[in-house]
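User: Could you go from structure to sequence for me? I need the amino acid at each position, not a summary. Structure tokens:
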């Protein structure tokens, strides 16, 4: 049975201030670096064939301690990036709400309908991430385990694809910094073992 672990990156300063970072290449803060070390401990007894990240530093820094502990290669895949927030990048929630009140309301209540000004839609994110997810999973043998370290929005779109959920339901899935979800695959069948494990961070 194949195990696919999906993890969100550790905390950044932008996460702390509710700043929309998207494709901005922010590093982890001190709490995020500690979360990355705890993530490695989570996988101490779980041999990983390979680790995949987006090409943003916050996912690579999250994966690094696990890579070093297990001697598992990190492969960067740009399509696992967070949504491109376009004109929202670098702005706080309150700043966006003042300038784009209807769009930010749609973003949370009808996320499948919104395309951010100068950025992406969640459908576009799902299409690029899901294509890479399928390719990565297919490249591994039936009993291998792998880890994908990505971003909150991207992880939600992947879980929606796996569960055949409409993207308008994506915000009903809680994905915390460094939270781990596990998908099991046997032959062509795929199911969710758990979503957003964070107990190891306490």
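Assistant: Here is the amino acid at each position, in order:
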């Amino acid at each position: 049975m194949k195990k696919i672990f999906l993890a969100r990156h550790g905390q950044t300063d932008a996460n702390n201030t509710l700043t929309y970072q998207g494709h901005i290449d922010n590093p982890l803060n001190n709490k995020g670096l500690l979360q990355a070390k705890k993530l490695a401990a989570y996988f101490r007894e779980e041999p990983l064939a390979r680790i995949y990240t987006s090409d943003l530093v916050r996912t690579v820094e999250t994966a690094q301690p696990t890579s070093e502990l297990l001697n598992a290669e990190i492969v960067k895949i740009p399509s696992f990036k967070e949504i491109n927030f376009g004109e929202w990048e670098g702005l706080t929630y309150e700043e966006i709400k003042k300038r784009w009140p209807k769009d930010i309301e749609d973003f949370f209540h009808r996320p499948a309908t919104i395309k951010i000004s100068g950025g992406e839609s969640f459908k576009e994110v799902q299409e690029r991430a899901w294509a890479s997810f399928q390719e990565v999973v297919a490249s591994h043998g039936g009993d291998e385990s792998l880890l994908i370290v990505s971003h909150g929005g991207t992880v939600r779109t992947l879980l929606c694809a796996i569960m055949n959920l409409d993207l308008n339901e994506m915000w009903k899935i809680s994905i915390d910094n460094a939270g781990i979800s596990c998908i099991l695959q046997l032959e062509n069948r795929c199911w969710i073992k758990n979503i957003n494990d964070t107990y190891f961070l306490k």
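One structural detail worth keeping in mind: The longest strand covers residues 189-197.
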